[in-house]
């Protein structure tokens, strides 16, 4: 539920307006394609994690099957993904709060939200899973209710509301008002929404039964994500003209979901929806900062970052790693104070650049893994390396699309590439000498997983 909650979040609730502005009603197709790419990534990561449920997940696996540098790059890319995501989420909190307090500056809400998650992460982590499960459940439940009421309004109508029908899908310029290529270009925004799909594999190291856990989680998440995203976007562009939703997306000033719920005519429903989405964004920021802190702490412990970052407080909290990982929220606040417009767009694009690198490494690792291991994993992806190649093609196509999307995309791409260039220089300047190439962890889990019955797709053999 937590992984599903992270994957269903601000990218859908707030960022979908930007995707609609690019593709119009055809954004439905963009999200369907995005769901397929995400499904491939999650399944490939899952197969490797079932075979090797090692700590460090796909980063450790990339280090073994590609190269130590690939493992290093993957883990730093994922750290930057989570750091920037935390910043994007607190900006989203500010955007939602503007619904009630339009005259309060954005930086004030970013400061309050950023400070709140920092303090929360300084406290005991024992309740983290419970809190995030609860908040993720609320978030997912909100989407389910949105789909139920939305479909009812589109096809049957509601008390006091006639059925809207699907005419909005073809009016205002047609189903593809910006041409066929807009479906592809919209992927630059759409794929941000699927960040979190890779968490399926990370949990394998702590699962009592990795095969059953990953298989059930992967199958459920793929179908739920595809259903949630495709149906949700269908409802949005069916109920309100895509041009109205697109207007929100230009500056990320509000959520198309709030606009749709407001159309239902239920008293206070717009405000209630906005509150749920604001809570979801705060939850996402908290989870992202938590993940970034643990990732940086692990990097310090394994010699891929300064050793001082591996230190913990008397209560076991990696306080220094937490402070450094708060960089995304700090940068977001500085940008807000400076009056920079479209902050969420910049941060969303940077998250996309970084997560595309992570996904590329996962798929390349999988292809290298299949050459060595073949069908050794108890859980297998249909099509194997060929399926991974399709996913990799989609990831590369998304990266290229970012250059055509314009706006905040290109500066964020260049910043992301600059970051990867910097950590690459640092790696070859000496970090590579500190990284262990021991296969002890793999040998330990290999003995266990070879005794597990084989599962091909979802069927037991």
Automatic annotation (TrEMBL):
Annotated ranges, domain Amino acid permease/ SLC12A: 1-405
Keyword terms, alphabetized: Amino-acid transport, Membrane, Transmembrane, Transmembrane helix, Transport
InterPro entries linked: AA-permease/SLC12A_dom (IPR004841)
Domain of life per record: Bacteria
BP terms from Gene Ontology: amino acid transport; transmembrane transport
A matching Pfam family: AA_permease
Sequence similarity: Belongs to the amino acid-polyamine-organocation (APC) superfamily. Amino acid transporter (AAT) (TC 2.A.3.1) family.
Protein name (Swiss-Prot/TrEMBL): Amino acid permease
Organism field: Candidatus Rothia avistercoris
Lineage of origin: Bacteria, Bacillati, Actinomycetota, Actinomycetes, Micrococcales
